[in-house]
Amino acid sequence: MNISIVGAGALGSYFGVRWSKAGANVQFIVREKRAAQLQDNGLKINSMNGDDQIENPVIVTDPTQAAPADIIVVSVKGYHLESVIDTLEKLVDAHTYILPILNGVKHYDVLTNHFGKKKVLGGLANIIATLDDNGHVKHTSKIDEIRFGPLDEGQIEICEQLAEISAAANMTSVYSDKILTDIWYKYMFITAFSGITTVSNMEIGELLVHEETKDIIQQLLHEMRQIAFCEKVDLTVQHLEKAWKTLYSLPASATSSMHQDYRKGLHVELEHLQGAAIELASKHQLDIPHLKTIYGILKAKISL
Ligand SMILES: NC(=O)C1=CN([C@@H]2O[C@H](COP(=O)(O)OP(=O)(O)OC[C@H]3O[C@@H](n4cnc5c(N)ncnc54)[C@H](OP(=O)(O)O)[C@@H]3O)[C@@H](O)[C@H]2O)C=CC1
Ligand SMILES: CC(C)(CO)C(=O)C(=O)O
């Protein structure tokens, strides 16, 4: 299988290396700075599930020079999505599918508006990873799950092919026949988790102490569930319980990637996650006071 990765950051590099080692032809579509780093240092992953590396990754800076791909994995941050549309236009041909693995849902509208619903597969990732100063992947928990599935009947075959190569890779992969629900479950979870950790600048262990704080998290999850319902995605009470259980299962020092980015002074996906949720709520005239409060405070904090 030929896989192009657009966004060779933490996630794109991690899964790209694992697929490559399983026998896929993987090329990384990158900008000049990342290209230089990959040429100088190679592509390595340091992982609790086993280190791995590609000495000479296939690096492409001009998308018109890229080899045709069966699947283009999009793993940029939400705020960079618009900037890769041009690149994707040069990469997509009649046979190519796009697999986004960003958090959130807003990118599905952007991608399907440009490329059509038949082209865009459903995907998400559950992993805690970042790039170190050498541009190597630091994967810091046992979880390294990529989850994907068809959003359209015509996508079943390509998802099955991806499942086959992924099963041979040293990572966890799940072919889901209810990927839209999975994407929304993750969106509910991450919007609450990233919102509360970033706004408070606190880790999860510190946040699960007082009933009053826990109530805010519950309300955030509940508001996200209401938005999902209006978008015709039925997140059940069991989904809420699962989110709650997951929060309790995390080590006390765990936090969201948004909070980690905030602490490093990096740009955060506020508009892509909480901002987009507020837009959807407003379309459905839903009252979501907790999400709006978190968003309003974060907006002020990140513009400091
Ligand atoms: N990190 C994590 O643990 C998790 C992240 N996620 C989600 O996955 C998504 C990706 O996150 P993550 O991997 O951490 O992000 P990173 O910031 O590590 O990687 C994003 C990469 O996209 C590249 N990029 C941006 N614009 C372009 C462009 N125009 N052309 C080519 N490459 C480009 C950046 O490269 P450059 O160096 O050129 O800027 C960067 O390397 C996010 O939505 C995040 O929320 C989900 C689960 C866990
Ligand atoms: C919660 C986690 C680590 C799960 O993948 C995540 O998606 C994030 O923090 O962005």
From TrEMBL:
InterPro entries: 6-PGluconate_DH-like_C_sf, 6PGD_dom2, ApbA, KPA_reductase, KPR-Related, KPR_N, NAD(P)-bd_dom_sf. Pfam families: ApbA (PF02558), ApbA_C (PF08546). It is an enzyme of class 1 (oxidoreductase). One of its GO terms (biological process) is pantothenate biosynthetic process. Pathway: Cofactor biosynthesis; (R)-pantothenate biosynthesis; (R)-pantoate from 3-methyl-2-oxobutanoate: step 2/2. Gene3D superfamilies: N-(1-d-carboxylethyl)-l-norvaline Dehydrogenase, domain 2, NAD(P)-binding Rossmann-like Domain. Belongs to the ketopantoate reductase family. Catalyzes the NADPH-dependent reduction of ketopantoate into pantoic acid. This is 2-dehydropantoate 2-reductase. The lineage of its organism: Bacteria, Bacillati, Bacillota, Bacilli, Bacillales.
